[in-house]
Amino acid sequence: MSGRLVHIGSAVVDYVYRIDALPAPGSEKTASSFAQVAGGGFNMMVAASRTGMTVVFGGQLGSGPNGDFLRAAFAAEGIETLTPPSLAMDSGNCVAMISSDAERTFVSWPGAESVLTLDMMAPVSVAPGDWVFTSGYTLSYAGSRDALTGWIEALPAQTPFVFDPTPIVSDIPRPILSRVLARTTWLSCNATEAAEIAGPGDVEDLAARLLADHCPLAAGVVIRSAARGCHVTLADGTSQTIAGFKVAAVDTNGAGDTHIGAFVSALARGVPPFEAARYANAAAAISVTRHGGSSAPTDAEIQTFLSQADATSKPGQDQKAHQTA
């Protein structure tokens, strides 16, 4: 494994309620279960760490019960936090409602992760061979977007920078988004997020326009497209739609994060992009068969899964990607 994953994102505490269906306006539901778990960027970091990459966190955690909970979760996964905790506030939280069809709905409240300055990021250094990641959530916050964008632009040219715009991409001011995309090495998003950036179209057109008009330095674009798995287009114009795997999904929360973390980890150890995308599809497929956002598998589990898939069917035949949205 070459280098670390330096994650400059936001981690929050998830309060997860499992319900049969979303409540109608003005009504009430009783959840079948409840859990408090580390969420947000933590899920992506766990996926990269469990598949063999050293991960460090350069975002902001709070001082309070949520921040303490997250620090304990980071420590349990061997993820080092580079920055001191915020003295002004606790970490934020997110209420996640998971329905019986494995879909999820979120309501979030920002905390310390929404404020990030260059002074706060002073302890974060990037070494040769490191990979850097951030998400649209951190760029959506008025208290962090300017400092983080400037920091990203100042990265050494040889440092790969991975960006996930996330579902709140429309909340990122367009000038900020354009500056970050201009420095992006790998963009990973779903089809809705891709269309928000580049306009309507099928995944092949969207990927081509993202590379040509928005990500001039990118090595490639990954568009996660639900039943079609994921589509990868490289800077040289080669592309491939890589089928997912048919699984019995019980919880899709964190599946996209798992996909990105596994993909970056595979790339960092030299796996070719299309093969890395299939590896990420497998990681996400395994994750949705488990409850909890940070349900990413280990490299050994992914390799076993892929070996079994290869033994029973050819890649791309009669498979549905429930995991990559």
From TrEMBL:
InterPro entries, per database record: Carboh/pur_kinase_PfkB_CS, PfkB_dom, Ribokinase-like
Highest taxon in the source lineage: Bacteria
Single GO term (MF): kinase activity
Carbohydrate kinase PfkB domain location: 5-295
Residue ranges with Polar residues bias: 304-316
Keyword Ion transport among record annotations: no
Sorted UniProt keywords: Kinase, Transferase
Pfam hit, one: PfkB
Sequence segments annotated as region (Disordered): 291-325
Name of the featured protein: Ribokinase
Organism: Mesorhizobium intechi
Lineage: Bacteria, Pseudomonadati, Pseudomonadota, Alphaproteobacteria, Hyphomicrobiales
